[in-house]
Amino acid sequence: MNRQSGFTLLELVIAIAIFALLGLASWRLFDGVVRTQQGAGQHERDIRALQRAVGVIERDVWQAVADSVVLAPGHLQLQRSHWRNPLDQPRSERQAVIYRLEGTTLWRDSVGEGSTVVQRQKLLGDVRSLSWRVFDRQRGWHRETASDTAPLALELIVSAGRFEQIRRVLPLPEALP
After folding, report:
1. CB 166 within 8 A of CB 55
2. CA separation (Å) from 159 to 130, 131, 152?
């Protein structure tokens, strides 16, 4: 008797179909993991950009010279020095710093004392809205600085990228003990 061993055509087709389904499921799983990782990476980059921008603003506000904060529609201007030392003596030069929104980009312009060179820094892109307010004891929160009172705090509200609204309240040096 002549017995042949092997697979029939139907068995081969079924095996190939099962292998194809497993391959397709594996590909979809891999593709989902890669897309999730890319989304998380972009979200992390957006958070870092926002943290960096707010950190620069915080540093400038904490180093602001008394009575130098000028808040007007569309921009914030202040004079900054460096950290105060224990004897409260002046340290190095002052800088005029202006924050302004141009299109969807938040810019920081700074000019050193006695210099004409403006250093422009792109602080944050994809900004949908930006608002500033200052707080003083007499008038509370308002959108423009008054010449007769020194503000005690600065509020920043920004909507950028995937972040709907980020609010930071920063004490000015006059409010710190």
Report:
1. no
2. 7, 9, 24
Model confidence over 23-64: pLDDT tens digits? Answer: 999 999 998 888 888 888 888 988 899 999 999 999 888 888
- Enter the DSSP assignment of 173: G
**Which 3 state secondary structure label does DSSP give 3?**
coil
- For residue 26, give Cα distances in angstroms to 17, 38, 116: 14, 18, 61
- d(C-alpha 41, C-alpha 28), whole Å: 20
Residues ≥6 apart with Cβ < 8 Å to 15: 7
Q: pTM value?
A: 0.73
Question: Phi, psi at residue 49, to the nearest 5°?
Answer: -65, -40
3-state secondary structure at position 20: helix
Q: How far apart are the first and last CA of the chain?
A: 105
Per the model's pLDDT, the better-predicted residue between 34 and 86 turns out to be: 34
State the Cα–Cα distance between residues 120 and 108, nearest whole angstrom: 6
What size, in residues, is the chain?
177
Residue-wise pLDDT for 98-147, tens only, equals 999 999 999 999 888 777 888 899 999 999 989 999 888 888 888 877 77
